[in-house]
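Holo prediction — 4-deoxy-L-threo-hex-5-ulosuronic acid.
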Amino acid sequence: MDIRQAIHFEQAETLDTEGLRRHFLIEDLFVAGEMRAAYSHYDRLVLLGIRPEGTPLAFSAALAKSAGVADFLERRELAVVNLGGGAARISVDALDHVIAPFEALYIGKGAKGVAFAAVDEASPPKLYGVSAPAHASHPTRKITQDEASPQALGTSEAANKRTIYKYVHDGLLPTCQLMLGITRFEPGSVWNTMPAHLHDRRMEAYLYFDMPEDRMVVHLMGRPEATRHLIVRNEQVVISPPWSIHSGSGTGSYAFVWAMAGDNQSFADMDFVPMGTLR
Ligand SMILES: O=C[C@H](O)[C@@H](O)CC(=O)C(=O)O
Ligand SMILES: [Zn+2]
């Protein structure tokens, strides 16, 4: 189990390249035929890379142990999004849900018998899961891309023309904490989340994807007045602490899954950073 501690910005600001990557970047979550997990102590968010090939994948005993329960979702909720490949068959409480590429499934607290499989073994899905502690059990539900209320943002002059799809948010379905969406760029647009913002109330995790191997995103993190950067490759995840901006620019277009947990579920609750204060 890959466990990441929550650290103060005073410590983060003393770290070198390797130190920043060790605490904030997850490089190897997606491995064919495996379910891999990383546990962040920021809001106890658990990130899952799930790539079923052949045999269906279920939560391991080690994963349940990390939460101190018999069944991983005993006191947690989970959102899973299909990043492409083929469709996935996700079993929950003896019901099968077929989740096509760019569809998502919310699974409520207490769900049992959860298993992930490829619908067609010749085109296995790539699934990304995000789980947070939950106090109530909300209904399991599939969300399509159309339901994710696409919202156009940015301009080509600022190289940040993009569409935000909100899959898991309180306007669409109830969850305890989780919010999740996908942001996609127009060709030639490369800047995400610019102007930058903070939301100390919620931590965030960014999974960058849809990039060829030689492409990179320069992810900006840190306090606005003391930024650092991480070089991020395809299918790597950045853990974004509550005190940090989360923004970046790519050497070409890309997409990313953003997910949040914390005190409120208001997507619009952001403190914009005056651009002049960035250092
Ligand atoms: O709090 C919200 C998250 O940072 C993302 O939704 C921002 C984002 O996708 C973007 O501006 O490109
Ligand atoms: Zn944000």
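READOUT: The helical segments are 9-12, 17-24, 61-67.
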